[in-house]
Amino acid sequence: MNAIEHIPTVCPCCGCGCGIELVLKNGEIAGVEPLKSHPVCKGKNCLKGKNAYLYANSEERLTTPLIKKNGKHEACSWDEALDWIAQKLSEADRDAVGFINSGKCTNEDLYLIQKFARIVCKTNNLDNASRFCHSTSVPALLSTVGAGVMPTSTPSIEKADCVLIMGANIQETYPLLAQKVIIARTKGAKIITADLRRTPTVKNLTDLHLQIHPGTDAALINGMMKIILDQGLANTDFIEKRTSGFDELKAYLDTLDLQEIEKITGIKTEQMKDAALSYASAHNACIMFNAGIAQHAGGVETIQTLADMALLTGNYGKPGSGVNPLRGHSNGEGFGDMGTVPVFYPGFQKVNEETAGRFASMWDAADLPAKPGLTYMEMVEKCPFLYIMGANPAMSAPDINALRKAFEKKELVIVQDIFMTETAQMADVVLAGACGAEKDGTQTGVDRRVQRLRKAIAPVGDALPDWQILCRLAEKMGAGEHFAFKTSEEIFEEIRNCVPQYRGITYERLEQAGGIQWPCPDEGHPGTETMFVEKFGTPDGLAHFQAAPYKAPLEPPDDAYPYILTTGRLNFHFHTGSMTRRTERLQNEISEAFAEISPQDSENTGIADGEEVILRSRRGEVKTRARVTPDIKAGQVFLPWHFPQCLANILTGPSAGPPSRMPEFKFSAIQIEKVESDGK
Ligand code: SF4
Question: Which of 199, 501, 542, 589 would disulfide-bridge 519, Cβ 3.0–4.6 Å?
Fold first, then answer.
């Protein structure tokens, strides 16, 4: 007789954090079912969720550590791999090691890698994939409302009566969050989407589509705010009691000309008015945004304008309102919370002497680093040693040709992952990690929801949970006493002690489906569904308007590179596809890239639907097939970035300066050329 078990856990394929049950037959994952009692998914999962963790069974899983010898990876024992790494890292100078992490790892894994970096390698050189998606959100929202997080809960989006979606294709990339928007719409909410493409989100759940010129969103929002003020729709009571800086914002908006904004954005003033009046007259207006506006050199300014508009209309502190950054990774909130960033210790405690001293005493360790570390691409460029846990920069970073050259010069590249990713192929040592179905832990989804991941099966082969690998390596490097953890729960207990926002959360309390939203200051606290109800996260408790002018892109199109490339995701794949491309049903849906071009560009260039094309930027070129569609405007090209055969990020390049250092993934100047039938 077959023994069937159901193990409740969390979907690993996006930040929505839906509950799933892994169905085990005779100890193996045989299927996935949605968790009925879960507040986010309520008994539904999208296609990715329905296939979650089936990649655990893939024959391509890494089962042992590997060391590169004579250009080839060879299997070795854990002792051999870790001894070798320990010897090399012991010889490294202070700040010579860079740690790159992923939101696919658990909070416990992430907490330990930052502790390892700070105690063992004495460095704050720590960064993660959020550098490539929300490094603009955090400074923008810190400077306005005091916290770069989603202030509401996913379920409460159903209560919004106007939703403004900026640069986010939620139906494909956050399907269950999109369900909440659909429910709000059936109750009468108006849905407005600003996006340069007619995405499935635009076609299926949008009432007003603002098909904006790429990268001009700040100009649009400033225009909408000017209209709101001119129409007398500002919430003066909220502005007086809860904000500062309004006069400066008003003075700036007074200088703007709507006709000029129409030219910059391509949005007619009448449409802008429709959007502004719908947003400002709603009782509960919600803004959500993602990479479409965040991955720009002017991303910080754009997100500041969004916060300004929510403050101008009093749309903070109510369920289903506020400005909500949508983080893509399943633990996309956790890597910031755990301090795997160069400027914060865990709990967003700023890197400085005082914080380093406080952590030295909590960890009983000496000489912790007190100066900000290097950011993601700075580490790729400057650190001779790289330790990469769960991340795949050989697909996700900009200008991959430059990254490959930088990797060739490294003294040591260590990659810890569950598959031989494109980055692992370049590594000197590859450490076989356990996947999320093979370990216990927690993850924190898009709405600050901390949830339990549960071990359902044993790790494949000799693979180990990331946190166990780090504990063993620390022991070999003489720091074992700081890493003497036997279970993930013991690590979480230390996290609670160091991260004030998590203090009241325990594994026992996380037994309830749907977890707990931080901040949760004590064990009697239910968690926080809506932030900023009475005061903001700033030192004075007030929100601060920031007049933020539109900033032009770094690499505008010109005669040599006349098209604008934008990159993005598709509904069947997640991030660099390392998991979903190894999930048969998802890979069968779509297995290769395509370049969307407009019918007008098809006519002008003679490139027909399905024909092979070369896309070329100043940094390199890729080959793919054209998909001709009226969903994109002339002069623009869309390319998904999940597929290694067509690495979209070979084409992308320049990064903004501080504070974000965001690569401009959504705007690169390119050429497009038909591949002639002889292959040239
Ligand atoms: Fe998983 Fe996201 Fe789909 Fe929910 S919406 S099932 S978290 S991929």
Answer: 501
Number of domains in the chain: 4
Q: What is the pLDDT of residues 198-234, one digit of tens each?
A: 999 999 999 999 999 999 999 999 999 999 999 999 9
Distance 457 CA to ligand 1 centre (A): 21
Same domain, 141 and 271: yes
What is the residue range of 468's domain? Answer: 66-132+330-517
Give the domain-ending residue among 285, 302, 326.
326
Same domain, 345 and 431: yes
Task: State CA 29 to chain mean position distance.
Answer: 28
Calculate how far, in angstroms, residue 606's C-alpha sits from the geometric centre of ligand 1: 40
Among residues 436, 432, 464, 578, the alpha carbon closest in space to that of 105 is found at 436
Q: Are residues 322 and 340 in the same domain?
A: no
- Would you state the structure tokens that stand for residue 123, as one six-digit string? 């460095």
Contact 370, 136 (CB under 8 A): no
Tell me the pLDDT of the chain averaged across its residues.
93
Ligand 1, atom nearest to 41 Cα: 4
Spell out the residues 6+ positions from residue 93 whose beta carbon is closer than 8 angstroms to its own.
none
CA of 409 to the centre of ligand 1 (A): 39
Pick the more confident residue, 60 or 52. 60
Q: Identify the DSSP state of 637.
A: E
Domain boundary among 57, 77, 99: 57
* 142 and 122 within one domain: no
pTM: predicted TM-score of the whole model, two decimal places: 0.93
Q: Are residues 43 and 184 in the same domain?
A: no
Nearest atom in ligand 1 to 175's CA: 5
Digit-coded pLDDT (tens) for 353-371: 999 999 999 999 999 999 9
Whether 586 is in the pocket of ligand 1, judged by its Cβ within 6 Å, is: no
Q: Considering only CA atoms, which residue is closest to atom 4 of ligand 1?
A: 18
- Whether 618 is in a domain gets the answer yes
